[in-house]
Design a protein that fits this description.
Number of helices: 13
Number of strands: 5
Bound molecules: uracil
Shape: globular
Helix content: 40-55%
Radius of gyration: 20 Å
Structural class: alpha/beta
Order of helices and strands: HHHHHHEHHEHEHHEEHH
Strand content: 5-15%
Largest sheet: 5 strands, mixed
């Protein structure tokens, strides 16, 4: 009996790690794919190099801290085809995101966007949940297995804890808008790479602009780093106020960071701090 339960635990571990979700109907020769992608990127790099200087530079203010430091491509320098392709995807993301005027338009733009590698392994696009006119907005890190299955953010155990935290201060899930820094589940719930975050960033920025909440809450350190450009650990970042502002916004939005509910489920001793944070958020919301 114990043996059966150990086997079940091992199987569940593999499922949680996403082993079942990367299996396609046909085998894929990854070596052939990457050779073709390299060739495509080299051709693109050559044409980019030829037209260097004729294109407007992407607006640095609308890109995450990580992408602002990406080295540029200068004439005569050895080009890295992958980097050229990455930068091109970010430019496309900026253009698509800027053109969207509503959440539905943003969802359509993301559905047609092929620049984020996470899309290839995910089941569903997970953009947002909640009303477009919400005054409180949460941004988490990335969809997990439950979110990927349902196409809705924060519906698994973390989402249930977040709902309970909201209710404890008289707020309800239906009043808030919830999203993530990336819109497809990273395989095995790994942390999104810098490029995955960078290419999704114009879309989450645009979502904040469209919703224009009174208060923005970054859920967990990766979200706080991406959205607020901060680098400290979440224990130092939480419980304080920051400003979130893009080049397109006329005013800054009050922003803060809190522990991720997944961390609170593993580390219940931190719930006391988390409850202080959610009370601080509710107070600020009632005053604004
Ligand atoms: N964790 C996140 O950061 N986002 C989700 O949507 C679910 C779990």
């Amino acid at each position: 009996m114990q043996h059966a339960s150990e086997l079940h635990t091992a199987l569940q571990w593999h499922i949680d790690a996403g082993c079942d979700e990367c299996i396609a109907d046909e085998p894929i020769d990854r070596f052939a794919v990457s050779k073709a992608e390299m060739a495509k990127a080299e051709m693109a790099a050559a044409s980019d190099d030829a037209s260097a200087g004729s294109r407007p530079a992407p607006n640095a203010a609308s890109q995450p801290a990580a992408s602002q430091n990406a080295p540029g491509i200068s004439r005569g320098a050895k080009v890295n085809p992958q980097e050229v392709d990455n930068n091109r995807q970010i430019r496309t993301a900026v253009e698509l995101a800027r053109a969207a005027r509503t959440i539905d338009e943003l969802r359509d733009a993301l559905a047609g966007f092929e620049g984020c590698p996470l899309k290839k392994t995910a089941t569903n696009l997970v953009l947002s949940d909640g009303p477009a006119e919400a005054r409180l907005m949460f941004v988490g890190e990335a969809p997990g297995a439950d979110e990927d299955r349902q196409g809705v953010p924060f519906v698994g155990p973390s989402g249930k804890l977040l709902n309970a935290m909201l209710e404890s201060v008289g707020l309800f899930r239906e009043q808030v808008l919830i999203s993530n820094t990336v819109f497809w589940r990273p395989p095995g719930n790994r942390t999104p790479t810098t490029q995955e975050s960078a290419v999704c960033h114009p879309f989450i920025e645009r979502l904040v602009e469209i919703v224009n909440p009174a208060v923005l809450v970054c859920v967990g350190a990766p979200a706080a780093h991406t959205m607020l450009g901060q680098t400290q650990g979440i224990s130092r970042l939480r419980g304080k106020w920051y400003e979130f502002q893009t080049a397109q916004q006329s005013h800054p939005i009050a922003a803060t960071a809190m522990f991720h509910p997944a961390y609170l489920l593993r580390t219940p001793i931190k719930k006391r701090d988390a409850w202080a944070d959610i009370r601080m958020i509710a107070k600020r919301l009632s005053e604004s």
